[in-house]
Specification:
Number of helices: 6
Strand content: 15-25%
CATH superfamily: Metalloproteases ("zincins"), catalytic domain
Largest sheet: 4 strands, mixed
Helix content: 40-55%
Oligomer: single chain
Strand order of the largest sheet: 1-2-4-3
Length: 174
């Protein structure tokens, strides 16, 4: 994917993100690009586009209820455009639209506090996790793929000095 341009659009729908995490837009762009570089494998084209939305628990709960049948907020949701088999093919040379990653501020902040992490590090992890989902990685159906996805996440985060999010307190992985 070295020849592919990466466009990451970040939208802040809850201004609490700006207050809680100054530099959130740049953090999201950086982590998304790193995840794309590491996890894309054979994805090739002139350009790749994704959208990251920083919003609140209420919006994520609504999306989670409407699209996943779970009426509760969650930390991150990914909506992969490549999964839409009914979408018309993109014109030749057009950017590959990967989809959207949506993060909920209150849940992300609560989890970061519970895990003793900074909001920046937790957000970085969730962006990487969400982007890997856009690329087709799945941790729910196949344990081998789940382990590989965790390895990719850990590798991307380590390049930025962020600790393994799956490490236990005693230093062992789950």
């Amino acid at each position: 994917m070295s020849e592919t341009a990466i466009d990451v659009a970040v939208s802040i729908e809850d201004e609490g993100w700006s207050e809680a995490l100054p530099g959130a837009v740049e953090l999201c762009r950086t982590m998304a690009a790193a995840a794309l570089q590491e996890g894309a494998g054979e994805l090739d084209g002139p350009a790749v586009e994704i959208s990251i939305v920083l919003t609140d628990d209420a919006q994520v709960q609504e999306l989670n209820r409407d699209w996943r049948g779970q009426d509760k907020p969650t930390n991150v949701l990914s909506f992969a455009a490549l999964d839409d088999l009914d979408a018309p093919p993109a014109p030749i040379g057009a950017p590959i639209l990967l989809g959207d990653v949506v993060l909920a501020l209150e849940t992300c902040r609560r989890e970061a506090d519970e895990q003793g992490k900074s909001l920046a590090h937790h957000t970085a992890h969730l962006v990487v996790h969400g982007v890997l989902h856009l690329l087709g990685w799945d941790h729910e159906e196949d344990e081998v793929e789940a382990n590989e996805m965790e390895r990719l996440e850990t590798k991307v985060l380590a390049a930025f000095g962020i600790a393994d999010p799956y490490a236990q307190a005693e230093g062992e992985r789950r």
